[in-house]
Design brief:
heterodimer, A: alpha+beta, 6-stranded antiparallel beta sheet, 16 strands, B: 6-stranded antiparallel beta sheet, 11% strand
């Protein structure tokens, strides 16, 4: 039990350990077989004629759009003509009733135009077929070999376990909000998993336990990322090739694929992030029909997705920030539109407050309400929470507790720090190591319930057994001088003028003495905060301070984690600064005294807002506690975009079945180049526009796509990436993946626009179309080929490591830091 | 040419007596009885030791800021003829007669005094009335916290001075931009902006915030310039280039210059040597350089070396072994190999010497000519004093059970074979054929049998490609071994190494190492009695006791004028609300203010409120120990905003003459109150008068203020 406080860290650190070797005879056959991908779709046939015509018909509408500050069309020499029409029909009055993802194409098919209906229907069907193909391919890649390997991979050990906790309804603590784990638990429950698997460590085989439901849910949600990205890019750039390129980048990225195939929070988180982004983009494009049904639909869907994203991980805050910025800009435009009355603007504001603030908050709280209702049994997370919180959990000793109310000499007690997630005063049979204060027994705080948390309260001057029935009961009063004896080791709580192990300006606290006989440094004055002298001390409710008699310092916990010698428990010190902080205030939790009558204490039940607040405080403290230790090899944010180092999901040695989370280097390095290229071309374009350069209409349209559509995606990338540089907590490679989604969308938009601009410079239109098509096609094929090369990273490798020339991955270890 | 022959030479002096007067009272308030108290006050104990280091030319490393500020303080000591002999060990210690207290405190006091007229000029350059400008200067003049801070050897007042100078010169530049760009005056103020920014950053890293503010405002103005279609492309390009040179290149060059001067001045080895790399230490006079002078450069088979761990945390240490063996069974019940211990020892010791041996030969001496060890060579490491070989095997290490134990092999004749072959991996190699060089090369030892890497604490870490400094070692002391016999070798090890070649590190290498160490050195976040949180600053809920007279109750506190602090915070809030109100109304097409007034109002807010926010809000993200004096730069910006807000209220919100008169009366009453408070707090600012306990208690206006009262 002693080292369990380092649970999260320890288990994560343990992941690179090799998984047990597996005999994988039949599995060897497949890795190379399904490389026959369905060929890349041909350059879309609808990118053809009727450019000039449609452009003309679209122009009055374009002006409206421009005044609204919305995305102008990408007019590119007949290449984008049809896209224009699509947008037009989408926003036109006829499309008002068209709802849903397929609404666009249906509406496009319905709106009568100068083209004959046959080709229109063909075009609509083509678009739908393309979307279906993208979705299908995404699902196919994500579900392929989902059951492999049939053992715990990496963090499945945490999230699978937490899913089991929901099924068993036992309370636990985690640093992330509950939605993701609840969904995992639900999927497990529906697929017949009974919550009995222990999920002890990576590499444990599932055997007869049903795990496919939980992996299936993650793969299902992860598969939607590709069509979502496709639709977002389509909406932002109005260009099918850009959307296709994005979809290909994400489908063929081994990293996204790997991350979607296991029981992890990331696919769920990314699903909600992309859903929020998609609905935001969609409602932006409905802006010219405010308060219509689709407008309300997309707006509220944005709010719902935001609640979902935040409910899975706090990283969801970044997408909230993005939607918030977008909304502020949007309202600013509306506010500056003098044709709208203030009442209308007020309505707009209220609609956004309702859908983007109130609705997500309500949903978020509902998630917690469900979480707290489901988990009603005592479990491993109890100790993280206050005594009042624990009283709600059935099976906890505080649930419907009946304990003696007032503290008396001879009582056996546990003492809990009032600051959240500090834990119980604890000691054990280990000494402080040499060179760290006096070599006496360690005193720490510990978050889990344990026999070593028990202390006996004794008078300072007698060593007689107060439980001797011949003595009368004597209550402890405010201001009394007491001694606290550790029950298991019979040492006294002791302090002296030695510096504390971590907080050098405080004094060390130790366990001292033999069988309760120590010295005057064992005496503490017990004080109740805000009370007068002579009062009795109430269990659970009195907030007490322990003041060391000789040095005058106050017993407290600094909240710092001790190194390995202290079993990664928290430091206890005696602080000479008498400021009242929660760190130095304690309450008595368990109380055993056979001489006193037990009294039922059920008035403690905290209200829901209190529970919510406490849960968040504990989560935030937990997150801050995940600090990298010196000498640890940690992943740095600058490693991520260059794909510097991956994560071992499973296996390490040549004989193991190995899965390695690593981005497809072709995709990732293309993304990296694209960001630089985007910054360059974007600033050139911005400066040209600021200088008032006269651009041809087509070029101007493309520039606006680049600046506005690309800008929005770039903002998403920055918001999901840069904050990590400021974070003090321990970071992992997979934290980059939400940002990577945005970066891939940027790549799609950028290359399509650049190729169009290049093609625009050519005189002959057929040649221009050719250049564009060849460019996009080669990018698509290049991505697909790189996936063919790197797919074993995700689907599993066996055989020797890559430095061995006989390995299937030989020659692919392009960076020395990759470990496969 | 020769125009003076035709026309008389006329010098028209245009002296603003206000500025002269403000400078005068500023100097008076800051310099009055400057050398009192003749004792170490608060952080003087911290900066003082660095002044002494400069005086003695001894190298030191301080992670609190770049060296320019320290050098300014040391300049005072140099001018005052300080010899650096004072033991800076406790606050309150009396200065000995060799310490020129007045000269040492002069520079901060001068910068503090000059900030007063600069406040005047900034507000008038913002095109607010002369009255508002005077108000701003008078507020800076009587603010007690600013007075206290500038009368001592501390760096806040130079920092504030350079912050204000940067803003002022940018405003002057911006105003002359409208009239005649590229004239001498324009260039002067533009360059001065860059110089002031560099100085601000050079004094304290906090100066970066003001630098960012100036850069941001300059960026927005440059963007407007790009949009100005009356200018030709070439003209715009020249404008941008001039700004880039002045505001980016100049500060960078100056910043490097500060370090250059710093490193040139400090050429002797000192107490912080050990934090730096061996190569850096070798470049300092004395210390390691004395030992390493004249060592052979290339490590050869048979060389005798000491191996220092590059990581250097928590302590710099050398690979070490001694006769003692690992205990058979550890306290927690795990077993060991019971072979000779290998540790990393933080002191120089005879047991730190190792001999590099070629596994193929039995010789322990350098052959003639020496055979240098190259990257990738397989070597054995022989412990000099015990002649045992460095060995690792699949036994758990004493403290880190996941890693392998490293020992010096003792053949117990049990079935545990020696595994003592190490492949040399030069981390900073130029090519794969590189040879191993003393001090310059950083090497890893990769165990041949298990691919483990020799690492601090000393354990064999399973090979992981993530490079970490704790796995890297370098050769510090080195000589070619000549004795084959064990006894001769022991004698040889005891004799010091000799001869003389200097190994000079380039300035850029030394700069980047020093800068990197300064940024990454994590000093322990010490709790301090007077530390505070940013939230306590805005309304002055905290103070710092700087000094207490050893006998009487005369004392110096960092304690602000609460009337000024509160009204400055209120004014900032009022400004923000008014700004938002006007902004929204403008968006709806209602222009409350004339266009030029609006632009002035916005620029004043950007510089002053923006300066306040940039200098204040980042502290919420910082994890280091914070003190009230960190707020002073932000406060200065706030004070500059206060008079413009008052003027705005009087000019635009007071409709009638009567209202305006009433408002003026209120302002005068308020300022008198501020003066009165300032006067009441004066004994705590100058520490010149001993107050009775009753008077002290009467000054304790807030419960959270900590005013020292002697128990009689």
């Amino acid at each position: 039990m002693l080292c369990a406080s380092g649970r999260l860290l320890a288990a994560r650190a343990a992941t690179p350990l090799p998984a047990p070797p597996r005999a994988r005879g039949p599995a060897l056959r497949s890795p190379r077989r399904e490389l026959h991908f369905p060929g890349q779709p041909e350059p879309p046939p609808w990118e053809s004629p009727a450019g000039p015509l449609t452009r003309q018909s679209a122009s009055p509408h374009r002006r409206v759009i421009l005044r609204w500050g919305r995305m102008p069309p990408a007019v590119g020499r007949g290449l984008a003509g049809s896209e224009l029409r699509l947008r037009r029909s989408r926003c036109g009055p006829r499309a008002a009733r068209a709802v849903g993802r397929d609404g666009a194409t249906q509406a496009a098919a319905r709106s009568p135009k100068r083209r004959d209906p046959g080709s229109r229907r063909f075009e609509g069907a083509g678009r739908q077929a393309l979307l279906a193909l993208v979705t299908l391919l995404s699902f196919a890649t994500r579900f392929h070999r989902l059951d492999q390997p049939p053992h715990i991979c990496w963090d499945e050990t945490h999230f699978g376990k937490m899913g089991s906790f929901y099924i068993n309804r036992t309370f636990f603590f985690d640093v992330h909000p509950p939605l993701g784990k609840m969904l995992i638990g639900l999927a497990g429950y529906l697929s017949g998993y009974d919550g009995t698997f222990l999920f002890q460590k990576p590499g444990d085989k599932y055997e007869h336990h049903s795990y496919m439901g939980m992996r299936g849910l993650c793969a299902f949600l992860g598969s939607w990322l590709v069509p979502f990205a496709y639709l977002i890019v389509l909406d932002l750039s109005k260009s099918l090739p850009a959307a296709l390129l994005t979809a290909a980048l994400l489908t063929f990225d081994t990293g996204c694929l790997t991350l979607s195939q296991y029981i992890l929070l990331d696919p769920i988180l990314m699903f909600f992030i992309m859903a929020a982004m998609l609905s935001m983009v969609k409602y932006n494009s409905c802006a010219n029909r405010p308060f219509s049904a689709p407008w309300w639909f997309w707006l509220s869907l944005t709010g719902i997705s935001l609640a979902g994203a935040l409910g899975v991980k706090f990283v969801g805050l970044f997408i909230i920030l993005q939607v918030g910025l977008n909304t502020i800009a949007d309202l600013w435009h509306l506010f500056g539109d003098l044709s709208l009355s203030l009442v209308t603007v007020g309505k707009h504001l209220m609609a956004r407050v309702l859908c983007l603030i109130v609705l997500p908050l309500v949903l978020y709280m509902a998630i917690f309400a469900v979480h707290i209702m489901v988990l009603n049994k005592s479990g491993p997370g109890d100790g993280f929470f206050s005594s009042a919180f624990q009283a709600r959990l059935s099976g906890n000793n505080l649930h419907n507790a009946s304990i003696p109310e007032h503290l008396a000499y001879g009582s056996v007690i546990t003492v809990k720090n009032l600051r959240m997630a500090i834990g119980y005063l604890h000691s054990h049979r280990h000494l402080y190591p040499e060179g760290i204060g006096a070599r006496q027994q360690q005193v720490t705080t510990y978050l889990h319930k344990d026999y070593n948390n028990l202390w006996i309260i004794k008078k300072h001057n007698t060593n007689s057994d107060p439980l001797d029935p011949s003595f009368p009961v004597e209550f402890v009063r405010h201001g009394d001088i007491i001694r606290l004896e550790h029950k298991e080791t019979s040492r006294n709580l002791h302090s002296h003028y030695h510096e504390a192990p971590l907080t050098r300006k405080h004094f060390q606290v130790t366990g001292y003495g033999i069988n309760g006989t120590g010295d005057s440094n064992d005496f503490w004055r017990i004080e109740v905060v805000n009370r007068k002298f002579g009062n009795r001390i109430k269990v659970l409710r009195s907030r007490i301070r322990l003041i060391h008699l000789v040095t005058g310092c106050v017993l407290g916990s600094s909240g710092k984690i001790l190194p390995k010698w202290g079993w990664e428990q928290l430091e206890v010190t005696c602080t000479p600064y008498l400021k009242q902080t929660l760190n130095s205030i304690w309450n008595v939790e368990d109380h055993i005294n056979p001489k006193l009558p037990n009294i039922s204490l059920d008035v403690l039940q905290p209200s829901f807002p209190e529970i919510l607040l406490e849960s968040h405080m504990v989560m935030i403290r937990g997150n801050n506690g995940l600090k990298p230790k010196d000498n640890d090899f940690t992943s740095k944010p600058w490693h991520w975009p260059i794909n510097y180092q991956g994560l071992r999901f499973s296996g390490a040695n040549g004989t193991d079945f190995r899965v390695y989370l690593l981005g497809n280097p072709v995709v990732w390095w293309l993304n990296l180049v694209s960001i630089a290229l985007y910054l360059l071309s974007g600033s050139i374009a911005a400066i040209a526009m600021q200088r008032g350069a006269k651009l041809p209409t087509e070029v101007e349209g493309l520039t606006r796509v680049l600046l506005q559509g690309g800008g929005q995606v770039l903002l998403g990338w920055m918001l999901h990436y840069f904050p990590f540089f400021l974070m003090g907590r321990i970071l992992y490679f997979h934290h980059y993946f939400p940002a990577m989604l945005f970066s891939s969308m940027l790549t799609g938009i950028l290359w399509d626009t650049l190729l169009r601009l290049c093609a625009g410079a050519l005189t002959s239109s057929s040649l221009a179309r050719g250049v564009h098509a060849v460019g996009i096609l080669s990018l698509l094929l290049g991505t697909a080929y790189s996936f063919y090369l790197f797919h074993p990273l995700a689907y599993g490798m066996v055989g020797p490591l890559a430095q061995d020339p006989t390995s299937p991955m030989a020659g692919l270890r392009w960076l020395e830091s990759w470990e496969f | 040419m020769l125009g003076f022959l035709k026309r008389p030479v006329v010098v028209t002096a245009d002296i603003n007596l206000n500025i002269v007067a403000l400078t005068g009272v500023g100097l008076l308030s800051r310099l009055w009885r400057l050398s009192y108290p003749r004792a170490v006050v608060f952080d003087e104990v911290y900066y003082g030791q660095y002044i002494s280091f400069y005086m003695n030319r001894v190298f030191f490393l301080d992670d609190s800021g770049p060296p320019f500020g320290h050098m300014l303080l040391a300049l005072g000591g140099y001018l005052g003829g300080f010899d650096g002999n004072f033991l800076w060990n406790r606050i309150g210690a009396e200065y000995t007669s060799n310490v020129p207290v007045w000269a040492l405190r002069l520079l901060p006091a001068l910068t503090g005094a000059l900030s007063v007229p600069m406040g005047y000029q900034i507000v008038s350059e913002l095109r607010f009335s002369h009255c508002a400008a005077m108000g701003a200067a008078l507020l800076l003049l009587i603010e007690n916290a600013l007075i206290t801070q500038s009368r001592l050897m501390l760096l806040e007042s130079p920092l504030i001075f350079f912050n204000l100078l940067a803003v002022l010169s940018y405003l002057k530049f911006f105003n002359s931009q409208k009239q005649s760009p590229f004239c001498l005056r324009w260039w002067f103020w533009l360059m001065l902006t860059g110089v002031a920014c560099a100085c601000a950053v050079g004094v304290k890293y906090m100066g970066v915030f003001t630098y960012l503010l100036v850069l941001g405002v300059a960026g927005v103005h440059a963007w407007h310039l790009i949009g100005d279609r009356t200018l030709s492309n070439v003209c715009v390009f020249c404008h941008l280039l001039a700004r880039a040179v002045a505001l980016v290149v100049t500060p960078v060059v100056l910043y490097l210059l500060f370090f250059y001067v710093h490193l040139t001045l400090l050429y002797r080895s000192g107490p912080h040597d050990q934090i730096m790399s061996s190569a850096f230490q070798a470049s300092l006079e004395g210390g390691l350089a004395r030992i390493t002078q004249g060592q052979p450069l290339e490590v050869a088979f048979g060389s005798q070396v000491t191996l220092r761990n590059v990581f250097g945390k928590p302590l710099p240490c050398w690979l070490h072994s001694h006769q003692n063996t690992y205990p058979m069974i550890y306290e927690n019940g795990r077993g060991s190999s019971h072979q000779q211990q290998v540790t990393c020892y933080p002191f120089k010791d005879i047991n730190n010497w190792w001999v590099i041996k070629d596994p193929g030969r039995h010789q322990l001496v350098v052959s003639n000519p020496p055979r240098p060890v190259q990257h990738g060579d397989v070597v054995q490491l022989v412990h000099g004093m015990t002649t045992r070989l460095l060995n690792t095997h699949d036994v758990a290490a004493p403290l880190s059970p996941h890693a392998q134990e490293v020992s010096c092999y003792i053949d117990y004749n049990i079935s545990m074979p020696a595994q003592n072959l190490w492949r040399l991996d030069i981390v900073n190699r130029q090519s794969d054929k590189d040879t191993w060089k003393t001090i310059l090369s950083t090497v890893r030892f990769v165990h041949l049998n298990t691919s483990a890497v020799l690492k601090l604490e000393v354990v064999g870490e399973k090979l992981s490609p993530g490079h970490h400094e704790s796995m890297a070692w370098n050769v510090e002391e080195h000589r070619y071994g000549t004795s084959q016999e064990q006894r001769d070798r022991e004698l040889e090890l005891h004799t010091p190494t000799q001869v003389d070649i200097s190994r000079n590190l380039s300035f850029m290498a030394r700069f980047s190492e020093l800068q990197w160490r300064m940024l990454t050195l994590r000093s322990e976040d010490a709790e301090h009695k007077y530390s505070s949180t940013p939230l306590e600053w805005v309304m002055l809920d905290t103070n710092i006791a700087y000094w207490l007279h050893p006998q009487t109750s005369a004392q110096i506190h960092l304690l602000g004028n609460i009337v000024i602090w509160a009204s400055a915070s209120l004014a900032t809030a009022a400004y923000t609300l008014l700004f938002l109100w006007y902004l929204l109304r403008r968006r709806r097409g209602i222009h409350d203010l004339p266009e030029d007034m609006w632009l002035r109002w916005a620029l004043a807010g950007t510089l002053c409120a923006g300066g306040w926010a940039l200098n204040y809000l980042p502290f919420f993200l910082m994890e280091k120990t914070l003190f009230l004096y960190h707020y002073l730069p932000a406060l200065t910006f706030q004070l500059l905003l206060l008079p413009p807000v008052l003027q705005h209220v009087s000019d635009h919100l007071c409709r009638t003459r009567l209202q305006r008169s009433v408002f003026s009366a209120l302002v005068i009453a308020w300022y008198s109150a501020a003066c009165h408070v300032s006067n009441m707090l004066r004994p705590l600012t100058y520490g010149d008068r001993a107050l009775s306990p009753g008077e002290l208690l009467a000054l304790r206006w807030k419960d959270s203020w900590d005013i020292l009262i002697r128990k009689s």
